[in-house]
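ingest -> validate -> predict -> emit
validate: passed (alphabet ok, no gaps, 137 aa)
predict: started
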Amino acid sequence: MYEEKQRIIVSSVSGIAETGAPTVLALDVSNDELGRVVCDHLLAFEPETPANLPSNKTEWPAFIASGARSVSGFESHSWQVLVETVGDCIRINARPLKSLHHEISVEGIERPHHANLGAVIRRVLAGALALREKGVI
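emit:
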């Protein structure tokens, strides 16, 4: 998942690659809808990496969905939000795509209740933004 300018782009992952069509949401989407879309994409997970991966970043589905002019521009203005299941919970981890300190991020955990999950995603992003504003990441 990515937050880029005024949009949220949610992608599914298979193995180590984003697959399928990303879902693009307005930044002001309801917490319930955000949580539902994230859960739908988690359910689309496949453990195997597809054989026909894009050969360059300009074919990256999230970049294409963003409508950004360049990959570098997309990366410079985007926040990466990794969402994964851990037992019966969902872990959310946010950081800027481009950062001087990739080892530092903000993390939250929530049960798969859509509205609560959407709210935690927003708080995790807000925490990452606060760290960026302080020059930490």
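The mean pLDDT is 90.
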